[in-house]
Amino acid sequence: MNIKQLAATIYQKRSFLCVGLDTDPDKLPAGFANTAQDIIRFNKEMIEATLDHAVAYKINTAFYEAMGIKGWQIMEETLAAIPDTHFSIADAKRGDIGNTAAQYARTFFETYPFDSVTVAPYMGKDSIQPFLDYTDKTTIVLGLTSNKGADDFERLQLTGGQQLYEKVLTTVAGWGSPDNLMFVVGATQAAALQNIRKLIPEHFLLVPGVGAQGGTVEEVAAAGWAPNCGLLINVSRGVIYASKEDDYLQAARLAAKGYQEQMASAFK
Ligand SMILES: O=C(O)c1cc(=O)[nH]c(=O)n1[C@@H]1O[C@H](COP(=O)(O)O)[C@@H](O)[C@H]1O
Questions:
Q1: Which active-site residues does the annotation give?
Q2: What are the pLDDT tens digits along the chain (268 aa)?
Q3: Atom 7 of ligand 1, residue of closest alpha carbon
Q4: Domain extents for the chain?
């Protein structure tokens, strides 16, 4: 699925919810063991439970890479369980010199055929270009992240008054198009969203940080709305760990439904 198809799905479902499959074996409900089979089962159940309310799924590769070879198998089978009707994201936050970046792009666009991958901009254009070369895929570049450390570098004031993340957004925007390039902006950074929309009025934003990190759908939608919605809000823990009891699937479905209903009211 590409960004245009994602936008059409968002309008059709009145939802811009991405469910984050940050599956931590230590947080599984009772009855699940730390085995590939059980973790795959949990992920498949989560996808099924939230399918109606979500438009995308984000697999944070860290949670799977930490498990070793088993994790890559789980990731592969989880990706295969995401239907074509939903946008898939490999949240891998890669970035390296060109020939290495080309291997990362191959990993997440070919070996594991995700629709999109997250990329760090620190190493500049040749570290991002190999991802953009896959014109039918989406490259998602970190802009202003949700964490406290965003102040350390991203908000650094450059000569002339611009902050570093602003420079990243406007420069990287010139390397791709709103059809194959998105930016990450944390929901905890809602106060900066209006300014960000002035800099990049059309690009889709992947917005994590709603739920466990304290961001809200309302604030993000009010400040970050674009003509094509332009928002994809990710919630991970707030959905997949909504309950650890027997009702974990019902709770995940209800949490996703609740977020979707908040999103529906943002459509004009
Ligand atoms: O790129 C990301 O997805 C990301 C960027 C960011 O600035 N902040 C952030 O939380 N994320 C990811 O979004 C997810 C947030 O998870 P929850 O806080 O559990 O909803 C995690 O997978 C994070 O790694």
A1: 93
A2: 999 999 999 999 999 999 999 999 999 999 999 999 999 999 999 999 999 999 999 999 999 999 999 999 999 999 999 999 999 999 999 999 999 999 999 999 999 999 999 999 999 999 999 999 999 999 999 999 999 999 999 999 999 999 999 999 999 999 999 999 999 999 999 999 999 999 999 999 999 999 999 999 999 999 999 999 999 999 999 999 999 999 999 999 999 999 999 999 999 6
A3: 145
A4: 3-264
Instruction: Give the single-character DSSP code of 107.
Output: I
- For the CA of 118, the closest atom of ligand 1 is 1
Nearest protein Cα to ligand 1, atom 13: 208
Give distance in angstroms: CA of 236 to centre of ligand 1.
8
Provide ipTM, 2 decimals: 0.98
Atom of ligand 1 minimally distant from the CA of 63: 22
Q: Distance between the two ends of the chain, CA-based, in angstroms?
A: 25
CATH fold, domain 3-264, is TIM Barrel (3.20.20)
Instruction: Out of 114, 146, 147, give the residue to mutate to test ligand 1, the one with the largest number of ligand atoms within 8 Å of its CB.
Output: 146
List of residues 6+ apart from 260 with CB closer than 8 A: 13, 14, 15, 17, 53, 54
User: Full-prediction pTM beyond 0.90?
Assistant: yes
CA of 160 to the centre of ligand 1 (A): 31
Residue 221 CB partners (closer than 8 Å, separation 6+) = 231, 263, 266
- The alpha carbon of 209 and the centre of ligand 1 are apart by a number of angstroms equal to 6
* 212 in contact with ligand 1, CB cutoff 6 A: yes
Token output for 233? 């809000």
Q: Where are the alpha helices (DSSP H) in 51-120?
A: 61-65, 69-81, 98-106
Length of the chain, please? 268
Atom 17 (ligand 1) nearest CA: 236
